[in-house]
Amino acid sequence: MARRLGRATSRFTEETQTCHKRIPAFAVWLCFCLVFPPAAEAGLYSPSDQIILLNPENVESVLANSTAAIVAEFYASWCGHCVAFSPVYKSLARDIKEWKPAVDLAAIDCAAQQNIKLCSAYSITGYPTLKFFHAYSKADSKGEAYKAFPRDVQGLRHRIIDKLENQEPWPPACPPLEPTSQAEIDSFFETNNVQHLALIFEKASSYIGREVTLDLLQFENVTVRRVLSTEQDLVTKLGVTEFPSCYLYYPKGNFTRLKVNIEARHFYSYALQRLPGVVRSGRPPLVHIDHPTNSTEEPWRPFNRSRVYMADLESTLHYSLRVELAAHSVIRGNALVSLKKYISVLTKYFPGRPVVMNLLRSVDSWLQNQSGGEITYEALRKILDNSAQSPDTALPEGVRWVGCQGSQPHLRRFPCGMWTLFHVLTVQAKSTSPRGTDPKEVLSAMRNYVRSFFGCRPCAEHFENMARESMVEVDSTSSAVLWLWSRHNRVNNRIAGALSEDPNFPKIQWPSPEMCSACHTVRDNREHKWNKEQVLPFLMSYFSSSRILTDYLEDESQVLAKQREAIAAQKHGERRAREALDSVTHLLPSQPTVQEEEEEEEDEGTQDETMADEEEEGGEGAPAADEMGGKTSEPTPWAKPEMELGRGRQRAHNRPSIVGMRMREPQEDIVDLDSFVNQHYKAKALRLAASSRVKQRTLQRKVEQEPGPVFGLGMEMDAGLGMVGLQPVEADFDLDVGRQRKRLQKRELIGQYYVEEAELSHRGRWMSVLSIGFSKVDISLCVILYCLSSMCLVAMYLFFKNRLRLRRAKVSLP
Ligand SMILES: Cc1cc2nc3c(=O)[nH]c(=O)nc-3n(C[C@H](O)[C@H](O)[C@H](O)COP(=O)(O)OP(=O)(O)OC[C@H]3O[C@@H](n4cnc5c(N)ncnc54)[C@H](O)[C@@H]3O)c2cc1C
Ligand SMILES: *[C@@H]1O[C@H](CO)[C@@H](O)[C@H](O)[C@H]1NC(C)=O
Ligand SMILES: *[C@@H]1O[C@H](CO)[C@@H](O)[C@H](O)[C@H]1NC(C)=O
Ligand SMILES: *[C@@H]1O[C@H](CO)[C@@H](O)[C@H](O)[C@H]1NC(C)=O
Ligand SMILES: *[C@@H]1O[C@H](CO)[C@@H](O)[C@H](O)[C@H]1NC(C)=O
User: Fold this and answer.
1) Is 668's C-beta closer than 6 angstroms to any atom of ligand 1?
2) Neighbours of 315 (CB within 10 A)
3) I need a labelling partner for 401 at 20 to 30 A (CA). Which of 23, 43, 303, 462 fits?
């Protein structure tokens, strides 16, 4: 990931370079271009494919001295065979994702201008070429080319194993692949402190044993060895009659057969990874969640893991509409279109309680009536909170996660709810929408929502990549249900083992064989295959509205009562704040700075302005007194107007799951790399020698990772403000500088409300700067704008100079 991250940043520079070429035509364009690089992907692979994208900058660090063997594809994006091969290579990457510490995949587009030299340096003459670079390859190694390699995943996997077995030096993370013997097994538990020893009995020509060994290389407390059918001692001792078959072997010669539906690689790997005591290496030990946690924390709500809960869906709506959207003070353009679609799909298909449906309908009709190009969030918020007090209309405040509870506050929750919500919506659309409706209706709404608002930006980019790649294929509501299911599984595959994974809810290819054994089957070549005829009815039933459980839901009457109280408190608060404001303005006539900034936002109408000012008061008076981290299952104290007023912004500040995820995700492979230091494999001496290098490499990666911004300047600025993860998401990088600026100002204001006491002195300084009329952000923005405008000027100057020269040249021609 760190490597990919490096590549992503360099893509950013590449793209700004291509932008430079366009300068003469659109000088102003340059400015946008510099700030928001276009998301277009060159080449056949994207960073979502779990394939290292090679380029002249990273090639050395990836291929030379790597602790893992690397298989690299040299392709040309124009070559038809390469295009045809790319889906196979991508599936291969997903298929052997768990092998990464031992063998990783890379690809390079030799048709790209900047790579041409590099490809000729590797003596590439035809495309696609696959090359194997063994671990610790020299910088000048050209790799070994695979001659006439197979064009299917299984064949490629076998060829990779062949090379792995014959390579020297051995990658330190690669477990032994050779067959074991009775003698070795006898002494195994004396020298190894491992809970499970899995023996896969197979014919010599079978690769399953080696594949499963590699599939489990990132897991602790389990060791897998293959036993050949010719190993008579063991075969007779365990009474093995079927090949392949898998046995668990324990000290003192006890053994049991591993129970699986089908004797095939996928089923073995899945079952072994879920054995008791088996954990991903490098992960903290499992915390047992079934015991209730502290009273200060949210109480754990027991739930059935194979059910959908309405409490999660309502929490998701609350979080998405009241927290995620709140980051956008003004919603316009594509974002507004996305919002309208999202609400309209919810109104049509959300299987909610009557009060919630009434609320969704009122939001929907309000949005449909907004003919202007933009809306303010404050105005939307009034509808969400039912300020007009329509009867039986409410969206419960706060979140109560049930099926989406995480074992820690930063795990699961909202993104889990988001997936669940959209699975439910696609299923509802299939079962209720009349013929002739757009089969992609729900998926497009999801795609737009994710693109415009979903706070986890890397997630949004990956999701957009998937949507761009294959959403066109959806041609029925059934295929929409299946599309979302299979893309969700792709995400599960990609992030399995990442730090954002809850150890108690490991990412699996879902549904598991336990949940739906009929969903899993194998092809003729014994490769795992989903039985879609079974998966579809399973999904239809699992996410059907009639099976959604209503446990832990707040009573409707309670919800409505709370809403009434909240509105009353708000009115009262407004009045009080207006009075307070009046007295303050009387005392301090020179207080206009804050108001000015607010005015500069958008003209939010007089009412909203007072609201904003009140929030100011509330924020000053009672910072952070409200619910923390979205833990609102406890009845919220509504009475205090100050708290009520600070709430909107407070929420925006507390976005736990996303913050956690964004910060952690890039480290996913670093964990993997560290982990193999702990493993006890083949040549110990070699491992010792290697470990220093591994560490060196890991360190190097951590440093590499630091610059971090995959998403360009927007995020860098954000990080500068120390608010990573709060990045309000704008419709696909189409922000203009002015809006960015306003957002930053607003954020600076928000930041000001919630500084902790330790930072009070800092705030004091900020205030003093403010009183002169400039904030630090103002100043740095000035500098940025100044730089941008001078670049624009240079660009225009060059453009006109060029034109003049051309004209002169023409004129001087006879
Ligand atoms: C659009 C989107 C993109 C994301 N992209 C990323 C990303 O790039 N990187 C990242 O780190 N995180 C990403 N996330 C977050 C990540 O997918 C998980 O949501 C999060 O890690 C919480 O995981 P979870 O264990 O709660 O299970 P989730 O994956 O959130 O799944 C929730 C529940 O849905 C069910 N489920 C699981 N798989 C399927 C399936 N295939 N079909 C139907 N139901 C299923 C299970 O019951 C599961 O508990 C993304 C989330 C969303 C909504
Ligand atoms: C690879 O390792 C060798 C010896 O360990 C060292 O001399 C060389 O500089 C390393 N190369 C790279 C690219 O790190
Ligand atoms: C491995 O298994 C042993 C024995 O059950 C257990 O004590 C240990 O905690 C397990 N290791 C991990 C990392 O869970
Ligand atoms: C309760 O919380 C405190 C502090 O957060 C912690 O030290 C303690 O171990 C927790 N107790 C339990 C039973 O989780
Ligand atoms: C959970 O739900 C499944 C499916 O409805 C059911 O078969 C199972 O018994 C439930 N488990 C518990 C513990 O209630």
Assistant:
1) no
2) 27
3) 462
